[in-house]
Design goal:
about 350 residues, mainly beta, Immunoglobulin-like, five-stranded antiparallel sheet, 29 strands, about 45% strand, disordered N terminus
């Protein structure tokens, strides 16, 4: 069954306008636009990695959606095809093994194909070519590989970083700073995550405290606190403003025992949890309450002792006090500092860099 509508282009050309940053949108990392020999035309190279495939063809409004007119040549794991196109807006799909019509997973700009699916959308002009040049001069883009089960394998890459540790945190992992740690590959830090179709927000977390938007991804959303999150769209339409409406501040989970909920203006609601099966009482003591054992008693809930306090942005040190006498560093928080008495305090840093 065809996965496009050859008559869709005429009816949707004026109804479907996709904008990025209010000035158009740059070509995705799967497409390269270069000036052609003929004046006013462009050499457009399409690249697609389908996974296991014998043949891939390029079909779109530029070849009347022919599934055979434009074969793509295999180069390693990728298939490529180049066309000479004039200025304009085009829709396209990749045809895998003669019958499987797929939109471009690296291109967030899409339009309804009137068959329950999506066509990928590309603008070709001097402006888009210039935007692509600017983007490619920064750090590398995301890599997205469609999987047979309908998910997408996303490789996040932060190029040329000297950070000793890095992680990717976002809506797909509850903004957890340890769930998706990045590994070093040369000068880069890399992490791979399998995700279902949808829209996600994310940031890189460097040295456990510095939150950084993806410098290779121009698509962002307001985080509601005067900063931005990077945005990733997989298999959905991108006909929405680049600057999305502010969303509720997500919780930050620096370690399994601590959850931080930003409240704005440098304030945070922080929940501490401690496992202490043999203790009859536990309290939280730290630099934020003058190390007062009676200031923040913890309540037992579902096998843990829990307390929620409001803390300002900054560095805080703390311990759990069991039965009023045993001072214990948080065993689930790897960040520690010497307590000056031969032991360790646990360390919590909040908001020392823009938090996603």
């Amino acid at each position: 069954m065809k996965r496009h509508n050859s008559g869709f282009w005429a009816g949707a050309a004026t109804a479907m306008v996709v904008m990025l940053l209010g000035i158009g949108f740059a070509a995705p990392p799967s497409i390269e636009i270069k000036p052609a020999t003929a004046p006013g035309k462009w050499t457009v190279t399409f690249r697609y990695e389908p996974g296991a495939a014998d043949t891939v063809h390029l079909a779109g409004t530029f070849n009347d959606w022919s599934p055979t007119a434009t074969p793509m040549t295999q180069e390693g794991s990728a298939f490529k095809a180049s066309l000479t196109l004039p200025d304009g807006e085009y829709q396209y799909k990749f045809v895998v093994n003669g019958s499987d019509w797929r939109h471009d997973p690296l291109n967030p700009h899409t339009a309804d194909d009137n068959n329950g699916g999506l066509n990928s959308v590309l603008k070709v002009s001097a402006a888009e070519a210039a935007m692509q040049t600017t983007a490619s001069a920064s750090t590398g883009p995301l890599a997205v590989e469609p999987l047979p089960d309908g998910k997408y394998r996303v490789t996040f890459r932060l190029k040329d970083t000297s950070a000793k540790t890095a992680a990717v945190a976002g809506t797909f992992n509850g903004w957890n700073t340890t769930a998706n740690l990045m590994k070093r590959e040369g000068a880069d830090m890399v992490a791979t995550v399998d995700l279902v179709a949808g829209q996600y927000e994310y940031k890189f977390v460097l040295e456990d405290s510095t939150w950084l938007t993806d410098p290779s991804n121009p698509l962002t959303a307001d985080d509601g606190r005067g900063n931005t999150n990077s945005v990733l769209r997989l298999g959905i339409s991108s006909a929405v403003p680049a600057k999305a409406e502010p969303t509720a501040a997500p919780k930050i989970v620096p370690c399994p025992s601590v959850a931080v909920e930003p409240l704005g203006q440098g304030r945070n609601r922080v929940t501490f949890r401690h496992l202490a099966d043999r203790a009859t009482s536990v309290s939280l003591a730290g630099s934020f309450n003058g190390w007062d054992v009676g200031k923040n008693p913890m309540k037992r809930s579902d096998g843990e002792y829990v307390v929620t306090v409001e803390l300002k942005d900054g560095k805080h040190v703390y311990k759990f006090v069991e039965d009023g006498e045993r001072w214990v560093a948080d065993p689930r928080n790897p960040a520690t500092a010497e307590d000056g008495m031969g032991g360790l305090n646990s360390v919590l840093k909040i908001g020392e860099a823009p938090a996603h």
